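Observation: inputs received (chain + 2-acetamido-2-deoxy-beta-D-glucopyranose).
Thought: call the complex predictor directly.
Action: predict_structure
Action Input:
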Amino acid sequence: MPNGHPSLYASITTLALLLLSLEKCEPRYHYHKHHSSSPKFNSGNQISLPPASAPAEPPSMSKDINTTRSEHRVFDVRSYGAIGDGSSNDAQAFRAAWKAACTANSSVILVPSDGVFMVTSTIFSGPCRPGLVLQIDGVVMPPDGPANWPAADSKKQWLVFYRVNNMILQGGGTIEGKGQDWGLTEAHYPGLATALRFFMSYNVTVGRLRIRNSPQFHIKFDGCEGVHIEGLSISSPSFSPNTDGIHIENTKSVGIYDSIISNGDDCISIGPGCSNVDIANVTCGPSHGISIGSLGVHNSQACVTNVKVRNARIRDSDNGLRIKTWQGGTGSVSGISFEDIAMENVRNCIIVDQYYCLSKQCLNQTSAVWVTDVAYSNIKGTYDVRSAPVHFACSDTVACTNITMSEVELLPHEGEMVDDPFCWNAYGVLETLTIPPIYCLQEGQPQSLALEDIPAMGCS
Ligand SMILES: *[C@@H]1O[C@H](CO)[C@@H](O)[C@H](O)[C@H]1NC(C)=O
Ligand SMILES: *[C@@H]1O[C@H](CO)[C@@H](O)[C@H](O)[C@H]1NC(C)=O
Ligand SMILES: *[C@@H]1O[C@H](CO)[C@@H](O)[C@H](O)[C@H]1NC(C)=O
Ligand SMILES: *[C@@H]1O[C@H](CO)[C@@H](O)[C@H](O)[C@H]1NC(C)=O
Ligand SMILES: *[C@@H]1O[C@H](CO)[C@@H](O)[C@H](O)[C@H]1NC(C)=O
Ligand SMILES: *[C@@H]1O[C@H](CO)[C@@H](O)[C@H](O)[C@H]1NC(C)=O
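Observation:
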């Protein structure tokens, strides 16, 4: 057996059987008009190598600012009264340091490496003078559990940056969310705090930092434009509910690179109002994968466009690449590409779920967020056989259109293959053969949808 991997051996055997069945069945098969050579498809008995070389360790940020240089004025939180003993409330000192640094040019707020700073919920407001760096070299944490939070503090968010422009958050330290003190094993608890939130901010860089055990989302951006994330490391237990790693909504021009995320919910989630999102070199897992959605809740309009995910690795996750929308929404998800993704033991590797519903009692509705122009290419690896690896559950009334797939090869991680991908009202093209074979995508355009009349379902 090769390399002592029984599952790999089983996979190869399965693949051989699969290839035999492919020959017999002659699946619907399209050559893309731009392809000059025939599609690459293994005729041998081994699967191709996983495509991604996403990081195992977050490398240091290429743009790391050297804050010890003379052009920076350093505002050490200790100089403003922070104790850093892990129990004194250092929030006032952090606020004072912020206030002083915010009004000076090229400031560095330093959280030194030899301290553990307990900081209660705080909103750091801008705008500030250009060149502000928050350098976290030590540990920053909230009070132990919600009962110890001051009564006046919002329990929905912990550290908030509001109207900050051109700011950099970096450092070799840790944001420790102490999520275990919030009863993480309980079901959805609406009061849980987001650890870090950037709200209505522009040109924000977050790099080389650890964020751990958030009670809820680890880092969230809303109403922002120009976000660069690099070398971030996020971890919380796989059983912790709603602990999304990076969540963005109403945010444009986002780059997420070289980061490692393991948590109990979406690795990266992209909410309504996002466009121009570039994600590369990210490793997720355990997690719930990379998700666009949920969109269209309470009959809302949602627009998400131009999202590119490339060179990612997703392992031991409940979903891989997911688009989820509620019934009754409007708007569209368009121009999405997933490229060079390695899967390892992932349930629902590729999934569009337009029937997303938390209560399981959602009524059928006629409107839906239109999902169109979604490309999957070079998606390889293994799936958890508890669900079909490919699942397109599109709206009854608004079909998914122009789904393109090439070089999709997914094999069971362990056990028997699930060879029936699911498609409902999904239109698109297979540019190469896929494993498992996906016969269920429909050709052409749905008759029910006059696409010319509703170019992007109200999204500009
Ligand atoms: C940062 O700048 C200081 C002062 O100019 C210099 O001594 C140090 O080597 C620099 N560190 C790095 C990592 O470049
Ligand atoms: C900040 O820099 C600008 C541009 O160089 C300068 O005009 C301004 O006086 C500086 N402000 C402070 C507070 O140093
Ligand atoms: C953000 O950065 C872009 C590109 O560097 C620049 O054009 C834009 O003016 C910046 N926005 C703000 C609010 O500083
Ligand atoms: C991704 O990682 C590879 C290999 O480390 C590197 O060559 C490439 O520049 C990275 N891409 C991005 C967008 O960070
Ligand atoms: C919604 O429609 C599906 C498919 O037609 C049907 O199976 C299901 O029972 C309907 N659900 C409700 C709540 O009406
Ligand atoms: C289908 O989607 C791709 C991007 O995935 C796009 O380049 C192409 O123009 C779309 N085709 C049609 C007919 O809209």
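Thought: report the result.
Final Answer: The chain has two domains: 1-239, 289-460. The first strand starts at residue 73 and ends at 76.
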